[in-house]
Design brief:
This protein is α/β, with parallel strands linked by helices and about 475 residues long. It has helices spanning about 55-65, 70-75, 110-120, 120-130, 140-150, 150-155, 160-170, 180, 195-200, 240-250, 300-310, 355-375, 400-410, 420-435, 440-445, 460-480, and strands spanning about 10-15, 20-30, 35-40, 50, 75-80, 90, 100, 160, 175, 185-190, 195, 210-215, 220, 235, 240, 260, 265-270, 285, 290-300, 325-330, 345, 390, 410-415, 450-455. Strands 1, 2, 3, 5, 13, 14 and 15 form a seven-stranded mixed beta sheet that branches. A seven-stranded mixed beta sheet has the order 18-19-17-16-22-23-24, sandwiched between helices. Strands 4-7 form a two-stranded antiparallel sheet. A hairpin with a 5-residue loop joins strand 18 and strand 19. The radius of gyration is 22 Å and the shape is globular.
Length: about 475
């Protein structure tokens, strides 16, 4: 909660409402200097299901803003970046009908499979919405809700994504953006409109959905009231999903690859070409500017590796080289590869295998899927030797850095800025004031500045070993854990 020298330009607020917490930055729009910050946690249910009470996101936003002190009240504009895919169902009173189903809740896997078949197969989905929906996509969660909790579906009068919910609490108006809505499965990426055929197939009235705002549009102003420390008339940007916000925060140019290490792992790059991958590996998301953000995502990244470290009673950096053990850390099911019912697999254990080698194998397994998808994410003419931009909670971990370098054979750049989603949201808010492209604002702020780590020789043997185990174990992984109900 720092307050620094007088700002050179108007102040803006960028918000990152993620799975576990909400972060807020108050930023000088002229220089990108962070003048105040705040953070507050929220809860996620444990076990098979992943749910959160949206009211907690709002309460966390209030707490984080209060930590920023008076600078939040001086802000001229605000934007919300939020976790993608989550299903928020609101009733007539504007309150949630039930807890939000989050992106990493995979219980809608049967509905995802059924929807793909009902529309005519993966290629039809890829052509129409840019992606083949897996259980993370919002359309599958609505289908699950309608099938398993029909009373909740009937009571729903508005359907929102997490960032939409917070934007609406700020303005009183239902609005989303093309970046976040492209992850629902009911937005046609070719026409950039809601796909009424898909909505009809899942029994969702388009009147329940928010308006899709244009990039750079002012969607409203902060409502009167004492709940938040904003001044009356503070402008509200469309906001966007977390990955699109991080792309803005990096000032990403087309073809620059990003590998994000968080609760989930993602690889993505901005593209001028509309993606449509019928294999489902790449989600054909839109970005927040008018271009595209092809992206591949895994469910198991830092949290899964940390869990393996805890099971071994090791610090997360206590890795050791060598050995021939393979660990596929699919502790929450997996999205890439598409094995939603899977669990972790350990293969190649020997008497001389050390705990540190087991932990390194968990890192290797988590990174392997992301790097395998990278070539599909990138356009064919992209430079395959340019640095990987490494971001997210794991980016500063030496074990993560070395694993990515060893398995990719590429240089790795680690931006010094840590809150890239919130910075991207702040850049979007600043764009409301200046009329600039938010990515250009972020480049002016030099947000991607950071050390570049030299490449090391690619570990082809490890990559081949992991690929072989994955291929051989795929039928077992697809069945789910033995003895489980699914």
């Amino acid at each position: 909660m720092s307050s620094a020298p007088t700002a050179q330009g108007p102040l803006v607020v960028g918000v990152d409402s993620s799975t576990q917490s909400t972060k807020v930055l108050v930023v000088d729009s002229a220089t990108g200097r962070v003048v105040a910050r705040g953070q507050a946690p929220h809860h996620v249910s444990t076990g098979e299901h992943r749910e959160s009470d949206p009211q907690e996101w709002w309460d966390a936003l209030r707490t984080a803003l209060e930590q920023c002190g008076p600078s939040a009240r001086e802000a001229a504009a605000v934007s919300i970046g939020g976790q993608q895919h989550g299903l928020v169902t609101l009733g007539k009173d504007g309150n949630p009908v039930r807890p939000a189903l989050l992106w990493n809740d995979v219980r809608s896997a049967p509905q995802a499979q059924s929807l793909v078949e009902r529309l005519g197969g993966p290629k039809v989905w890829a052509d129409r919405v840019g992606s083949v929906p897996g259980p993370s996509f919002t359309v599958t969660k609505w289908a699950w809700l309608a099938e398993n909790e029909p009373a909740s579906a009937r009571a729903t009068t508005a359907v929102r994504l997490p960032h939409d919910y917070l934007t609406e609490r700020l303005t009183g108006l239902g609005a989303t953006d093309r970046g976040d809505v492209s992850g629902t499965g009911w937005w046609a990426s070719g026409s950039e409109q809601y796909d009424e055929g898909i909505l009809d197939m899942v029994g969702l009235d388009p009147a329940l959905l928010p308006r899709v705002a244009r990039p750079g549009e002012i969607v409203g102003t902060v409502r009167d009231g004492d709940e938040l420390p904003f001044s009356k008339g503070t402008l509200v940007a469309p906001g966007t999903g977390d990955n699109a916000a991080a792309a803005l925060g990096l000032g990403l140019r087309p073809g620059s690859p990003v590998l994000s290490l968080g609760t989930s792992g993602t690889v993505y790059a901005v593209s001028e070409r509309r993606p449509a991958d019928p294999t489902g590996t790449v989600a054909g998301f839109a970005d927040a500017r008018g271009a595209w953000l092809p992206l591949a995502c895994t469910l198991n990244c830092t949290q899964a590796v940390d869990r393996v470290a805890a099971l071994l009673h090791l610090e997360r950096e206590a890795v050791e080289p060598g050995g021939s053990v393979t660990l596929l850390p699919y502790l929450d099911g997996e999205r890439t590869p598409n094995l939603p019912r899977s669990s972790g697999v350990l293969h190649g254990l020997r008497h001389d295998t050390t705990p540190g080698q087991l932990l390194q194998a968990a890192y290797d397994g988590a990174v392997h899927s992301l790097l395998g998808a990278l070539d599909v994410v990138l356009d064919p003419d992209a430079d395959r030797s340019s640095p990987l931009l490494l971001i997210g909670g794991g980016a500063r971990g030496k074990a993560w850095q070395h694993t990515v370098r060893r398995l990719s054979g590429r240089p790795v750049q680690v931006p010094e800025a840590q809150e890239l989603v919130a910075l991207g949201a702040a850049a979007q808010a600043a764009g409301l004031l200046t009329g600039e492209d938010p990515s250009a604002i972020a480049r002016r702020w030099d947000t991607a500045r950071g050390p570049v780590l030299d490449p090391v020789e690619r570990d082809e043997a490890a990559l081949s070993r992991i690929s072989g185990v994955l291929s051989d174990a795929a039928p077992l992984l697809d069945r789910g854990p033995m003895g489980s109900e699914d």
